[in-house]
Amino acid sequence: MSIAIVGMLDEREDALRIIKDCIEERGHKTCLIDISIGTGAIVPTLKPDVRCEELVALAGKSAGMSGEPPASVMTEGLRAKVTALHGAGELEGIIAITGMTGALISLPVMRELPFGIPKLLISGATIMPVHAAQFSSYFALRDITVMHTVVDTVGMNPLVRALAVNGANAISGMVEGRGFSLKEEKPSIAITEFGFCDKGAHHIREILKRDYELVSIHATGVGDKAAMDLAPQGIFKAFIDLVPGAFAEHLLGGNRGVAGPGRLDLASNLMIPYIFCPGGFDMISCGPIQRKDKDDPLWSSRKLAERKLYLQDSARVQARMNPEELQLVAFAAAEKLNGYQRKARVKVVIPLRGFSSLSVEGGPLHDPDCDKVFPFALKKRLDPEISITEVDSDINSPQFARAVAQALVQAFEACEG
Question: pTM for this one?
Answer without folding.
Answer: 0.84
